[in-house]
Amino acid sequence: MRGLTLLLPTLDEAEALASVIGRIPRDAIENNGYQLRIVVVDGGSTDGTEQIAQSLDCEIIQQAGGRGKGNGLREAFHRFIQTEDDFLVLMDADGTYRPEEIVNLLEHLESSKVEIVIGSRMKGTISPGAMTHRNYIGNRILTWLAVVLYSRYVSDLCTGFWAFERSAIEKMRLNSTGFEIEAEMYTSAVHERIQMEEMPIHYDPRIGRSKLGSIRDGIRIAMKLLKRRFVRHPRS
């Protein structure tokens, strides 16, 4: 059995968390030879998210480095490296991504012999109402900017569904604090020559209120792309 960490970043996701965890295909994951560990990294929820995670036997990381998705993921990646797990799947816990597709990402990761598989919404199916027109256009612009700056094709820069070999987590160098973290994972993978591939996924309407600030977060993502173009190893 190979160790698999499923990492779920949360901030006030009480409405969605139980449903997301309940849909995880545990039997299929185990039948494919993985020993599953579910880790919730929480950014300071006040709606009972942590209590729900505890009741569902999840491991919980309470962010110590400040609020923000980037802070939480970097702390969780550091904890992952201290375990003996072989793989990590990152998936937002708001109901937009389908846990049933975890096995598909892992199968693609191992069969293609790459270190990262990115779940692409743009190559897959976006359900009606799942993404606003503004966010769709913004993601397209940011993805175009990433490809122009780094000369490495990607179709969906801001997706929240990734599968990693342990080696990829060990190589990446990150210092993001917020929603720009996914863009920085892409830039770091390019700098460190980590092999990546994409596969199509489904994207559904989120459960609960969106945290993404759209224009402000888009500017932060664009600035991160520009900065990391010239800074290979940022300070943590």
Question: How would you characterize this protein structure?
Answer:
- It is globular, with a radius of gyration of 16 Å.
- Helix 1 runs parallel beside helix 3 and helix 6 (133-150) packs parallel to helix 9.
- The protein starts with a strand and ends in a 6-residue tail after the last helix.
- It is an alpha/beta fold and 236 residues long.
- It has helices at residues 14-22, 26-31, 49-55, 69-81, 102-111, 133-150, 166-171, 181-191, 215-230, and strands spanning 2-10, 34-42, 59-62, 87-91, 116-126, 161-165, 196-203.
- The chain has a 7-stranded mixed sheet with strand order 3-2-1-4-6-5-7, with helices on both faces.
- It has 9 helices and 7 strands.
- Helices cover 41% and strands 22% of the residues.
- The longest helix is centred in the middle third of the chain and has 18 residues, at 133-150.
Straight-line N-to-C gap: 33 Å
Spans of at least 5 consecutive residues whose pLDDT stays below 50 are none
Rounded mean pLDDT score:
95
What is the CA-atom radius of gyration, in angstroms?
16 Å
Question: What's the quick description here?
Answer:
By secondary structure, this protein is α/β, with parallel strands linked by helices. It has helices at residues 14-22, 26-31, 49-55, 69-81, 102-111, 133-150, 166-171, 181-191, 215-230, and strands at 2-10, 34-42, 59-62, 87-91, 116-126, 161-165, 196-203.
